[in-house]
Design a protein that fits this description.
The structure holds 2 protein chains of 2 kinds. Chain A is an all-alpha fold. Chain A has a domain at 80-94 and 150-364: MetI-like (MetI-like fold, Orthogonal Bundle), CATH 1.10.3720.10. Chain A has helices spanning 20-28, 33-59, 67-71, 80-91, 100-116, 125-142, 157-183, 188-203, 206-220, 229-254, 258-266, 271-286, 288-301, 313-321, 331-360. Chain A starts with 19 loop residues before the first helix and ends in a 6-residue tail after the last helix. By secondary structure, chain B is mostly helical. Chain B has helices spanning 18-51, 81-113, 119-133, 137-151, 180-210, 218-234, 259-286, 289-297, 302-332, 344-355, 358-387; strands at 159-161, 164-167, 170-173, 175-176, 241-242, 245-246, 251-252, 255-257. In chain B, the strands form 3 sheets. Chain B has a 4-stranded antiparallel β-sheet. A two-stranded antiparallel ribbon of chain B has the order 4-5. A two-stranded antiparallel ribbon of chain B has the order 6-7. In chain B, helix 2 (81-113) packs across helix 7, helix 7 (259-286) packs across helix 9 (302-332) and helix 8 runs antiparallel to helix 9. Chain B starts with 17 loop residues before the first helix and ends in a 5-residue tail after the last helix. Classes of the chains: A mainly alpha, B mainly alpha. The interface between A and B is large, with 65 and 63 residues.
Chain lengths: 366, 392
């Protein structure tokens, strides 16, 4: 009888590492043949073009404001155009020696915007702060009371972009609330008016609204009354933006179950109490991403005012470079510079929107 | 339907009656609106009389007196404003229709790419979306226009691939010379379309009654192409083309796309595709994972799962916001005025400067866009109703 001698079987190989850098690479880049192939293809293209781009944009770029040196062979991007023209690009046609004023005004307005975005400032006195800061902004920009007066048609660049977007957002939001409520009202006349307004505005491009504000609006006013073009354009953007925002808010209103309103009615709340305490808090929390998208869209849309001759960021770049033969060839660098400014603002807003979304939905999180 | 509970229907002329108050509010709102409109209209008429501005649409039949850089039909400066607007409209529609088609393709690819198992592809798609949607469309259009008109070589040393030239003057490519054979080919294509449609109906009916899956895409496509080629052969197979060549100052002959057109199209497509990608992503994400697992449990392969289970459900979420993006693209094409592409807004702008009829020209533009918007959303609503859940 053969005795079986205990023999241990060979140990199994260690499992494939799934953590760490190697594991991540294996799972995400080289999982199977197809993935590996596309990694190699895409990676190859990136490896070919990215260094070329970085070389152009950073390594062999020229940073000093010297147009001659920029034209030399082998020089990449000429960021000197920004160094040379940044004051014209950022402040437009604002009088050169007074440009500390838009600088301070922009700083104060930006600080206000950042403050309004933080929880610690969500207090009733924030409204007062807004009034104060806007008054300060207009005083600094317009002048008077010790400062040299500057007409609004010389405003330009970043301060104008910020002013247009801040004010039109601030005015469009309440208007949009009212219109959204009106579109869902029981009163047929109110409903029809609001529906007509929203559908008419949404059917036409912003540029035709701006044309209307700049060409036709003067005809609407009684004789002798002149309204500043800045104000007209502001009204145009606000009316346009409010129609889109109203649709987003209406989406939220539609999602509120009827039981909520009926419960409020049985508690004896009036229409406005119901909307303010029951419907709107729930509806608005639901549509935060949509509303923030609207805000971003408004910010981007302010660039269109350049077509009706208000020189905000996009317009002031043309102003700075179009008439200057030395620097005109480097306009693309100028475009990239202001594209970066727009990108920074829009990207910050979209990240902030994610944070707000988390804040307002805290009650729903488990 | 509404966010407030319906009022008790008591008929009384007292302020305590909700119905009565509602009536008062409505009369007030209508009255204010009418008053406002009358006031604006009254001022406008007064102002026009004061400044001697003529009004009316009679200018439409007058001679336009300006040339249009590019148009699908023949236009010269002796023709009327009406014709000029018509040319502008055709240019707008050309950009919008091509743009919508390209945007759908690119946007869907990028949106699906964000679910790729490959981190590089995923990252690239995300970078694309974040980059293009956070920069104003006007700025992007200006940048593309600058690239096309300044950084491309002159016509003398245009980039050349085969008979296709790319230079500051635009893109030139060979086009077939129109012959009767092409009409035959077109007839063949129409017949092929009809055949393909009939075949698909039959295949769907077969699938629903027997469960046998037949080729739903390649066979109909083959039918369509085969009929087209057949028609072309029957028509005598014309092969004559106008091939572009380098002239002394410009690329001559052949078909061409102007830099303005290319800049508008490329800018609009890249910008809108970043939004469409997000729409598609949200749509796919909205289908619960269980659906895909259930499809796998039933033995469907990846393609069938996509076509029969995932897409029909995702489409319900995708279509309404997609409609908005199509409308946005059409409306954004009005920005072409900034780079000199003769779309309808740009024509209207010129007409305003020449005739001073701001009210009339802007109203024409608005009417055109309103009609286009309503037509597009009408079509998409019809399509949406088809894709929506069939409920009782």
């Amino acid at each position: 009888m053969a005795t079986q001698i205990f023999q241990s079987i060979a140990s199994r190989p260690a499992p494939v590492q799934t953590g760490g850098l190697l594991g991540w690479l294996r799972a995400n880049l080289f999982a199977d043949a197809r993935t590996t192939l596309s990694t190699l293809l895409v990676g190859g293209v990136l490896l070919w073009y990215l260094p070329q781009f970085l070389n152009w944009a950073l390594v062999s770029a020229y940073w000093q404001p010297n147009a001659e040196a920029c034209r030399a062979d082998g020089v990449g991007a000429c960021w000197g155009v920004v160094a040379e023209k940044y004051r014209l690009i950022i402040f437009g046609r604002y009088p050169f020696e007074e440009q500390w004023r838009p600088l301070v005004a922009t700083g104060v307005l930006l600080a206000l915007l950042v403050a309004s975005c933080t929880r610690a400032f969500w207090r009733p006195w924030l409204a007062l702060l807004w009034v104060g800061v806007l008054a300060l902004f207009f005083w600094l920009m317009l002048g008077g009371g010790g400062l040299t007066p500057v007409e609004t048609d010389r405003w330009g660049g970043l301060p104008l972009t910020l002013l247009l977007s801040t004010l039109s957002i601030a005015m469009a939001f309440p208007l949009a609330l009212l219109v959204a409520l009106g579109r869902r009202s029981n009163l047929p006349a109110i409903r029809t008016i609001c529906t007509l307004y929203v559908e008419l505005i949404r059917g036409v491009p912003l540029i035709s609204v701006l044309f209307m504000a700049s060409f036709m609006f003067p005809l609407f006013m009684p004789q002798g009354v002149k309204i500043d073009v800045l104000l007209r354009v502001l009204v145009g953007i606000t009316l346009f933006a409010a129609a889109y925002m109203a649709e987003v808010i209406r989406g939220g209103l539609q999602a509120i179950p009827k039981g909520q309103v009926e419960a409020a009615a049985s508690l004896g709340l009036s229409y406005w109490q119901t909307q303010r305490k029951i419907v709107l808090p729930q509806a608005l929390a639901m549509v935060v991403p949509g509303i923030m998208n609207n805000f971003i869209a408004i910010f981007k849309d302010t660039s269109l005012v350049t077509i009706v001759s208000l020189y905000e960021l996009t317009g002031s770049l043309g102003l700075a470079l179009n008439s200057d033969a030395d620097w005109r060839p480097f306009k693309i660098e100028g475009y990239l510079f202001i594209a970066l400014i727009y990108f920074a603002f829009c990207f910050a807003m979209s990240r902030y929107s994610l944070w707000v979304e988390r804040q307002v939905n805290q009650s729903k999180q488990r | 339907m509404s966010t407030s509970a319906s009022p008790p229907k008591t008929k009384s002329w007292s302020w305590r009656s909700q119905a009565f108050r509602g009536l008062v509010y409505q009369v007030l709102a209508l009255g204010l609106l009418a008053l406002g409109l009358w006031y604006l209209g009254h001022n406008t008429l007064l102002n026009m009389r004061e400044r001697g501005i003529q009004s009316g649409y009679d200018f439409l039949v007058q001679t336009a007196g300006f040339d249009i850089g590019e148009s699908l039909m023949n236009f010269d400066s002796n023709e009327s404003y009406l014709k000029a607007f018509w040319v502008g409209l055709s240019n707008t529609l050309r950009v919008a229709i091509l743009g919508i088609a390209l945007t759908t393709i690119l946007g869907t690819l990028v949106g699906v790419g964000r679910f790729s198992r490959n981190a590089l592809v995923r990252g690239l798609c995300m970078a694309y979306v974040e980059f293009f949607r956070n920069i104003p469309i006007l700025l992007q259009l200006l940048m593309w226009y600058l690239l096309f008109t300044e950084l491309l070589p002159d016509a003398q040393d245009a980039w050349q691939v085969g008979a296709v030239f790319l230079s500051k003057g635009g893109l030139s490519f060979p086009v077939p010379i129109w012959a009767d054979g092409h009409a035959w080919a077109a007839i063949g294509l129409v017949a092929g379309l009809l055949l393909a449609w009939l075949y698909r109906r039959w295949a769907v009916a077969q699938f629903e009654s027997t469960g046998r899956v037949r080729s739903m895409f390649w066979l109909p496509l083959g039918l369509l192409l085969a009929m087209g080629v057949l028609g072309w052969l029957l028509g005598g197979a014309p092969t004559a083309t106008r091939v572009p060549f380098k002239g002394e100052f410009a690329i001559e002959e052949g078909g061409s796309l102007t830099p303005e057109f290319m800049a508008v199209l490329l800018g609009l497509v890249l910008y809108t595709a970043s939004f469409v990608a997000e729409v598609v992503r949200a749509g796919i994400q909205s289908v619960p994972l269980g659906q895909s697992e259930a499809a796998a449990a039933l033995g469907l392969n990846r393609q069938q799962e996509m076509r029969l289970v995932m897409l029909p459900q995702a489409l319900r979420v995708i279509i309404p916001p997609m409609t908005n993006q199509y409308l946005n693209l059409t409306k954004n094409s009005s920005l072409a005025v900034a780079i000199g592409y003769p779309d309808v807004v740009s024509i209207a702008n010129t007409a305003i400067n020449q005739t001073g009829r701001a009210v009339e020209c802007i109203s024409i533009v608005m009417l055109i866009y309103l009609t286009t918007s309503l037509l597009t959303s009408g079509f998409m609503n019809w399509y949406n109703a088809r894709a929506a859940i069939k409920e009782r």
